[in-house]
Amino acid sequence: MTYENSLDFARHLDATDPLRSFRDRFHIPQRNGRELAYLCGNSLGLQPKTARAALEQELNTWQNLGVEGWFESGDASPGGGVAYTWLNYHERCKTDLASIIGATSIEVCPMNALTVNLHLLLTSFYQPTNKKARLLTIKGDFPSDQYALETHVRSRGFNPADTIIEIAPRPETGLIELADIQNAIAEHADSLALIWMSGLNYYTGQVYDMVAIAQTARQRGILIGFDLAHAIGNIPLNLHDWGVDFATWCSYKYLNGGPGAVSGVFVHERHHDEELPRLAGWWGYREDRRFAMTPGFVPAPGADGWQVSTPNILSLSLHRASLAITAEVGLPALHLKSRLLTGFLDYLVAPFNDIQILTPRDPKQRGCQLSLLVRTDGKVLFNHLTEAGIIGDWREPDCIRLAPVPLYNSFEDVWRVGEGLRCFFG
Ligand SMILES: Cc1ncc(COP(=O)(O)O)c(C=O)c1O
After folding, report:
1. Tens digits of per-residue pLDDT, 278-290?
2. Which end of the chain is more exposed for a tag (fewer CB within 10 A), N or C?
3. How big is the CA angle at 408 (ends 328 and 258), to the nearest 5 degrees?
4. Which residues form the pocket of ligand 1, taking CB atoms under 6 Å from any ligand atom?
5. What is the DSSP letter of 207?
6. Which residues of 223-357 form beta strands (DSSP E)?
7. How far is the CA of 411 from the centre of ligand 1 (A)?
8. Which domains occur in the chain, in start order?
9. Among 302, 256, 367, 307, residue whose Cα is nearest residue 98
10. Would the pLDDT of 123 be above 60?
11. What is the helix (H) or strand (E) element at residue 109, kind and residue range?
């Protein structure tokens, strides 16, 4: 695509965008009667217009059925299909979730929050021995993950300082090459119990080559899991075929499930029949016998067996409504638009010498987010953009993250960033 820096050009791209109608499915925040250029879906996605009705439906069921909502359907089951109750409500999310991450339905389950799920999954998949205790990860991955790894290592009686191996970004680019990861796996293969890393780095916006990394891990017989907080709903994923062992994510970013929305897990089917250590709770018990309340934990088949507590149905209702939109468009179409949209942002930002685009310029190595390092007065620029109605987020000491989301952002939103930069730098 040959871009042009003009409002007419941006509007032309919007007019010919096959996904343009999806923007109308979301509430776009406004200030002083004008829509904001909301480029912050990497932090919190926008509210789908269907969210309120989905939530109200479950509030109505609660109002009308009380506790019976767990066993009776408050839904006039469209098409005469399965009569869903709150008891099996999570299953209503599975088809869409599975299509978004490239898995089978039994490999996925919406549950808990991301870090909670990471703890549950580490309990099952981090099985250190004296010979193989090490954990390989990315230096500077999201702090919550670092804390989870550190505390797991400690709780198993090992010292994080020599048990956690971190792959550092290259100083000249701030990024990590595939070879750096593959070399680290090869170097430490004999002592590695597990690899845990982000699939898309929250800070740099870099997408790691999960296919190649998972393949290397499997060739070496090392388990691998991914944090997909910034990848899910942003880039196409095919976790089952890639042979990834397990993963978790959140749904409040690109899945637009609302603040603190329910997370989910993926567990590859090859692990379903293994007797893995778990931190169990009654909701992970076989559903058909859960209410027998008998001692002795028997896990539900598949990813469901990692559930612990009673699910938050209100949160699941929002999740379901927003997942349906993402699944309706499908990741291939979203990704196609995403490349054009983020390519336009890249084109508009690149001429400004005071800004370094930290995110890889290669579209295959990024999703929708660009991380901009501002050489001087970054916070002043950030405040200027915010004043101009452009909502991104700020990371100390010098980074502005902007994420044009193909579901609801327009090319005009992106054009406004170029204008904001032009006004600031003159
Ligand atoms: C990459 C990544 N991992 C983990 C988390 C923590 O998620 P939660 O607070 O839902 O556990 C976040 C939160 O934004 C994140 O971006």
Report:
1. 999 999 999 899 9
2. C
3. 80
4. 113-115, 142, 144-145, 198, 202, 227, 229-230, 250
5. B
6. 223-227, 246-249, 264-267, 355-357
7. 28
8. 7-35+331-425 (3.90.1150.10), 91-328 (3.40.640.10)
9. 302
10. yes
11. strand 108-110
